């Protein structure tokens, strides 16, 4: 049971001194108690988060491969910043980084827009209908990433995919011809389009449900007021809904960016192995270098992972700054 | 009570192992171990399980208290499983690796130098010497050939009979037959998947081309030579120009055509004898399998050389019982064990003398492969070949780009540069 904000704000009665401990000055206890309480959580955080990150940075600065894993093997050798130097001068890496950012922006944009629209729709629908739609969404949300990716892959298969067959059946003046044999999984643009479709399809339900929850908390009078002022749906969204839900949107946006930067499974299924470097994303590149390369290059994989971690930390830091500035962390 | 005894015993074994382990000296594990584990590539099939039951029986004649545990590792996961085993995970004592991967794992320190043990084993003299040589790295023996396998051309004999045609023997006939099948049946005549180095290599070699050659200790990519380029363009053209092979196989390996072959969705494709079991599993109508026949791979003119596929048996470098593991390896790899496994898995034994046996000649499918076995070649024998092929996908990637319509000359120039660089990387 988390204490509600109300309960926290209420004056808690002074506690009786602990038995057998002798009288303690109250002020010192009130200083150290919060730290004592947060101590275990911090210790666990350091153990599961900070330590692996330290390890990762260490790996990225050494020549580290399979042979170093053997018992009584030589320790990995310090190589200065060779991995980073190679990365930053490699046009392939910059292309992958660019693709990662562009694809991530499109995924997040698509997910937020669709999720918000569906959230508003659910808010307006009659109750039974809203429940029906929600159940459908939950199913999409609950589908494991691998299953969803496989289904999308089948939809877009040359000659057999439903999408290819459907496009082929449409009149040529509308969509052009040659769709039946079109392979979606070879070039970055079509492949990333399918990838974005999978991701948006799987992640908009979360946004929709969160937005719906937020909408329910907005007093109805505000909408009455803007309607009296003659605002339509568009204006009332930007003048009431968005400002009221700004913290919620900020949180959802950051979560979505972090999730979409890390996309791996869906790409693994759609790109079908590592033969095509033009469709890599950062997460995929990390895996390829660190696990699938022959011999595995743990140093290089870690170096790319460090780059990605920094990107995610920047996004998170920016979000925290906004939150603290707005004083909305309460 | 028994658990206590076992615990005491295993502690004793552990003590014995730690006492004389370390430094990789060959004195470790003179004790008979409780169990030895073998990792085999592929998926568990009944025939293979039975093979290992028999091996265990034979092995226990010498080691009555040792059980043989077998684990099947899918080919695609081999790299990761072996890496995990090295990182301190669950590790095998005896390991099967693809014959083109021995040098790579040897250079990584994953498998043991078995030169001295091999010298004392007579059976090696009767094995295919080229395959034995392929199991060496840096002048030392690391792998022993276990079985060999070649790919052949599978075709639908009933469809060809209807057309009054024979299996194609060269590229012109391949195009002709494939086109005829498509006209008659409205299914693709031949499959040319792009992620298929083993198949593409046959086309290159048959045209007098090479993937790479070694000159004075330096590897040189040969993808830009006229012969190689012609072969690659021919293969790519099967998809992009002739429309013989469908777009569905672009970016795919041979497993997709395999499923289609089993279901009458393609007329001809290239694969090995081991594919038949998979086809049986995937065929909706088993009658189709009766109609599938094999022929040697058609080349530019006449039969094309095939990659001398196969696997090698190795001792894993972390094994605590190298002596017992070696005895298990020889049980699996001798004439009985080698032949039984080949028969169970749809391969050929590593002993050339057996290829003339009646059983390999009377079955037409096997006869075609046995014929093909006489015309084989190997990939560049360097630890870096895996980095170039399985990891870098240099040749499949180039094929993919050419099929997509990029300029072959530019693509191959680029790929050749990458190939030469990769093959000459110092082995870290």
Polypeptide structure, described:
Chain A: Its main location: membrane. Chain A: It is a multi-pass membrane protein. The complex is a heterodimer of chains A (about 325) and B (about 425). By secondary structure, chain A is mostly helical. Chain A has a domain at about 95-295: MetI-like (MetI-like fold, Orthogonal Bundle), CATH 1.10.3720.10. Chain A has helices at about 5-10, 25-60, 80-90, 90-125, 125-140, 145-155, 160-170, 170-175, 190-215, 220-230, 235-245, 245-260, 265-270, 280-290, 300-325, and strands spanning about 60-65, 75-80. A two-stranded antiparallel ribbon of chain A has the order 1-2. In chain A, helix 6 packs across helix 9 (about 190-215), helix 9 (about 190-215) runs antiparallel to helix 13 (about 265-270) and helix 14 (about 280-290) runs antiparallel to helix 15 (about 300-325). The longest helix of chain A has about 35 residues, at about 25-60. Chain A is flat. In chain B, the strands form 5 sheets. Chain B has a 6-stranded mixed β-sheet. Chain B has a 3-stranded antiparallel β-sheet with strand order 10-7-11. Chain B is built from 20 helices and 15 strands. In chain B, about 45% of the residues lie in helices and about 15% in strands. With about 425 residues, chain B is an alpha+beta fold. At the A-B interface, helix 14 of A face helix 3, helix 18 and helix 19 of B.
